[in-house]
Amino acid sequence: DEPLRRITSLAFLIQALSGGALVVCLDQLEDIHQTADAGPRFRRAMKAAVALAEVPNVLVILACLGDHYETLSKDLMRSDRDRIQNDPAPMVLVALRTKKEVEQLIARRL
Description:
With about 110 residues, the protein is mainly α. Helices cover about 55% and strands about 10% of the residues. It contains five helices and two strands.
């Protein structure tokens, strides 16, 4: 998977040069729900997100409306769904977050 390999290499480069992290945000995943091949596309996207999250200095943020996620997540392998939903547990965003809250969220992963 060439795109995944390149992103992983970029994360390692960032780590080597600055000790920093690569933050990947997948937003509006509910848009996948509107496509004819929603199940397979969502499964591929989540498989890539799980693989990226295995890299020590990568933080993956998934953003999706709850009802769409519930429908789409039924197509995921149980191990991927468990990893996404439990490591760490989802954070429901209902309003703007303060800088301190965002820093605490990121610190939990790094």
